[in-house]
Write a structure and sequence with these properties.
Keywords: Glycosidase, Hydrolase. One of its GO terms (molecular function) is hydrolase activity, hydrolyzing O-glycosyl compounds. Pfam families: Gal_mutarotas_2, Glyco_hydro_31_2nd, Glyco_hydro_31_3rd. About 25% of the residues lie in helices and about 30% in strands. By secondary structure, the protein is of the alpha+beta class. The chain has a domain of about 240 residues. The strands form eleven sheets. Strands 2, 9, 10, 13, 14, 15, 20, 22, 23 and 26 form a ten-stranded mixed sheet that branches. Strands 1, 7, 8, 19, 21, 24 and 25 form a seven-stranded mixed sheet that branches. The relative contact order is 0.09. About 10% of the residues have low confidence.
Length: about 900
């Protein structure tokens, strides 16, 4: 079994500002072996009622190169939805050590010493298995039942068996025939595998790969000082050198130490016999791709829409500060280990994608995985575990694939009407500040639906500034007359929203606390534990916190009580923050592996909040249930594959107050669109961004222009919500002056003008899983230009096209009108008609008039324009 090590970097204050990418085992490439005598050169195998697999080889029967298996749907039998690379192994396995470097919510997962690599694969048997009730299927059924859960299988299923092994192979004619028989020379390590394909429904096929323990019979152990280990080290080093050339980064040389299997029967002095001491903890699943194929999805990705050519890790964590934009990333990395993040770090990843060729796949389970898309002709997924399970999807369009995917993982519930009816004003300061702000907003005729008051718990001064008290009860001094304030706002159809997260800070130093929730949770023994059995204190910015063990049933019940206290005061919404920081060496009540639990934790956090919402709804009277203005809503940033089933509304976390590409206004658009493809139908960002930096050398402050342009962009998303940011005094705010208040009012009204359509899209999302804001690829999949777009523009549903200004000082923007049949687009401010699909046009977009268009002749477009006129926004 490989070793596992966690290295804490929380308190390291001087770090490499340019950290290298985490060490990883180079791309695996092995050969598949079989015999044409065992497998005809072309054979069809049914899988369920709607799919079939085809196994075929070259016409001359040559083994090795040419053997391939592909899967097809009966509606398009000529187009494979998944296929292996001809002649190449499609499953591989290994054993390696793992090191995780952790620092304040950021994680770097390294492959360290490699003990075993089984790259080559034999296909010994391909068998269609019907229900195991009679005849020859009985023995197969028994074997199948030993390895897989037979419950719910739709027979017939396809079972492929064989071995993966670590030695070289050669061709031989010793079989006496002319089939070109392949056999394996005495290999030192072999691992038997099973691959099961079964139909899940009419548009999904499941796959499940399992391995036995390695069979080590003929090998010897050689220390890393001998020539064989040095040879392997050289091969791996050369692999890393190639990867440097590929990525353009200087990555550290790969090092192999410890023991490696040797196929030689002769040992060296001091060598030991190989024992069955290894267990598989790395699995590779490899299959074909096409040159030029674009890959979309993978959850909420902030830097790239098309991930082809990238290596995509699937691990929830802090997105980072800068994520490659300079100089902020350098500075963040310098003062806190890897705090800058990179183009692959995200709060809400998902092991799912779809491609421009209508291929789609996702992994089940929660193990750490990496999708390697750097090769033109293949995809390779590395899974940290001893098996892999997932589904391959069939669809004839991107929207069909999203529907198929969200049918499995879950779709969001319908949002309460109030949250999509007006602006959500994010502010702080206490009761008096809220009442004064309300009067200012009224004077500018701002349609407001809620105040979001994250400082309802009170504020504390730390070495990094003013922060919240993580003790989830109202601060009665800051928000005196709390219930009266909520009631007064409610009488004006304005809700109050608050803030919480699954962490608790000791409240001993807080002068006016009523309950010390950390001490309560500690006494109840419902906090995540460290190896000594005490509360695991997790460093977070300037103070340490305990995390709720969400696998503990008492923890769930207790926190729902906290939420009930909050809602009983009249609160109707809250930010359910964090969820991405579970330490990977924690000890949980469930006893599960903390590495996989880390990816599951944000789903558990969402589930608790959702369960409370449903339980509260059930406890209400009939009149309250029917009153949509009394429904609850929460929003989150952390997530994983199934999060949309539990959390309806997301926000994109902490973008920089910047125009830059990887962490700023542009990344907010990319995150919105990539998450939408991945099932996150309702997502939005903090207007103006969140993270400001005010240092003598490096300064990032929210400018007025950035704030106003972010308002224009956000007016076309599901929720229109402001945030003061981490340094309110450094940032331009919606209430800063007459111009900002006027602009805020104007675009809150633009947002209000398409509420009728937003309501339709919310219902559609709950029924079909389609996002409100959409990449053009979803509706124009054959348009090459639309496929290549990133942050430049997006659709709202199918009827509104938005081309936001995302660069400082720009007043014109290039708009691309996609290749739709007989489509034309109408500019909402001037009424100009653009009727040449597939063309770009330079469009005027001064402040207050962003480039937005409606589909000519559509009912939605006409209604939107009429509403804009009634609100005196257009003439």
């Amino acid at each position: 079994m490989g070793n596992f090590k966690v290295t804490k970097k929380h308190h390291k204050h001087l770090n490499n500002p340019f950290p290298s990418a985490p060490n990883h085992i180079p791309f695996r490439k092995g050969t598949v072996f079989t015999t044409s005598a065992a497998h005809p050169s072309h054979q069809l195998y049914p899988i369920g009622t709607d799919f079939q697999a085809i196994w075929h080889s070259n016409e001359n029967g040559e083994t090795g190169s040419g053997w391939q298996i592909s899967i097809h749907h009966r509606l398009q039998p000529q187009e494979p939805i998944w296929s292996t690379v001809p002649g190449q192994a499609f499953v591989s396995a290994g054993c390696a050590d793992t090191e995780v470097e952790e620092s304040r919510g950021s994680f770097a997962i390294h492959d360290r010493d490699v003990h075993l690599l089984c790259d080559h694969q034999s296909v010994d048997e391909i068998r269609v298995v019907d229900e195991p009730d009679e005849g020859d299927n009985v023995s197969w059924g028994l074997e199948l039942g030993e390895k897989f859960d037979l419950g719910g299988l739709n027979f017939p299923v396809l079972l492929i068996t064989g071995s993966v092994f670590s030695s070289k192979s050669r061709k031989s004619d010793e079989s006496g025939g002319d089939e070109g028989f392949i056999f394996v020379e005495k290999h030192s390590v072999s691992v038997r595998y099973w691959v099961l394909f079964d139909q899940k429904n009419s548009n999904q096929i499941g796959f499940h790969v399992k391995f036995e323990k390695p069979d080590v019979q003929h090998g010897t152990l050689r220390s890393s000082s001998n020539w064989y280990s040095r040879g392997w080290g050289l091969r791996l080093r050369m692999g890393r050198i190639w990867e440097k050339k590929w990525t353009g980064w200087c990555l550290p040389f790969w090092r192999t130490r410890g023991f490696l299997a040797d196929s030689s029967p002769e040992g060296t002095e001091g060598s030991d016999k190989m024992e069955n001491c290894f267990e598989i903890n790395r699995v590779w699943f490899t299959y074909s791709s096409e040159d030029g194929e674009r890959f979309y999805g993978f959850g909420e990705q902030f830097s790239h829409i098309d991930l082809k050519g990238k290596r995509v890790p699937i691990f929830t964590q802090e997105q980072g500060i800068g994520r490659g934009d300079q100089p902020i990333t350098l500075a963040a990395n310098l003062v806190s280990y890897r705090a800058g993040g990179n183009s692959g770090t995200t709060y809400a990843p998902s092991p799912f994608y779809m491609t421009s060729k209508m291929k789609s796949l996702y992994l089940e389970g929660y193990n750490y995985s990496v999708f390697d898309l750097r090769r033109k002709d293949r995809v390779q997924i590395q899974i940290h575990g001893d098996s892999v399970q997932g589904r391959i999807l069939y669809g004839r369009s991107p929207t069909e694939l999203i529907e198929a995917y969200t049918w499995s993982i879950g779709r969001p519930s319908v949002l309460p009407e109030w949250i999509i009816s007006g602006a959500v004003a994010g502010m702080q300061g206490g009761t008096d500040s809220v009442r004064l702000m309300l009067e200012r907003l009224k004077s500018y005729d701002v349609p407001i639906c809620a105040f979001w008051l994250q400082d309802w718990v009170g504020r504390r001064e730390t070495i990094i500034g003013s922060q919240l008290w993580w003790n989830w009860e109202v601060d009665a001094e800051r928000y005196w007359g709390w219930r009266e304030l909520i009631k007064d706002l409610g009488n004006q159809n304005i809700k109050v929203m608050t803030y919480c997260n699954p962490c608790l800070a000791p409240a001993d130093a807080k002068p006016n606390f009523r309950r010390n929730l950390f001490e309560e949770a500690k006494e109840l023994d419902i906090l995540v534990k460290n190896k000594e059995g005490g509360p695991y204190m997790v460093p977070n910015t300037a103070f340490d916190v305990g995390m709720l063990d969400l696998t503990h049933p008492d923890s769930r019940r207790w926190f729902k009580g906290i939420l009930m206290d909050m809602v009983s005061d009249g609160v109707r919404g809250w930010m359910a923050d964090f969820g991405e920081g579970l330490p990977v060496d924690a000890f949980l009540y469930s006893g599960e592996d903390p590495v996989s639990a880390h990816n599951r934790y944000p789903e558990l956090w969402a589930q608790i909040n959702r369960e409370f919402v449903e339980e509260w709804k059930s406890s209400c009277g009939e009149s309250e249930k029917e009153a949509t203005d009394e429904s609850l809503v929460f929003f989150m940033r952390a997530g994983f594959r199934n999060s949309p089933m539990w959390c309806a509304l997301f926000w994109e976390g902490d973008q920089m107050v910047s125009w830059q590409a990887h962490d700023g206004i542009k990344s907010a658009v990319v995150g919105l669109l990539s998450s939408g493809i991945s099932g996150y139908a309702f997502n939005h960002s903090d207007i103006g961004g969140y993270c400001a930096v005010n240092l003598p050398i490096i300064s990032y402050k929210r400018s007025e222009e950035l704030l106003l342009r972010w308002m224009e962009f956000s007016a076309f998303t599901i929720v229109f919500r402001t945030h003061e940011g981490n340094k309110p005094s450094c940032n331009s705010q919606f209430y800063s002056n007459h111009r900002t208040l006027w602009h805020f009012s104007r675009f809150a009204k633009v947002y209000q003008a398409w509420k009728f359509y937003r309501t339709q899209l919310v219902k559609e999302a709950s029924e079909r899983g389609l996002p409100v804001c959409r990449h053009l690829f979803l509706h124009y999949p054959n348009d090459k230009r639309a496929q290549s777009l990133s942050h430049q523009q997006f659709l709202v549903g199918t009827e509104i096209l938005v081309v936001p200004i995302l660069d400082k000082g720009k007043k014109k923007v290039k708009a691309y009108f996609p290749m739709g049949e007989n489509e034309a687009w109408l500019h909402i401010w001037t009424g100009k008609l653009y009727s040449q699909p597939g063309r770009e046009a330079l469009v005027e977009a001064p402040l207050g008039h962003p480039a937005a268009f409606v589909k000519a002749g559509s009912t939605v477009g006409s209604t939107f324009l009429e509403n804009l006129k009634e609100l005196n926004l257009v003439h």
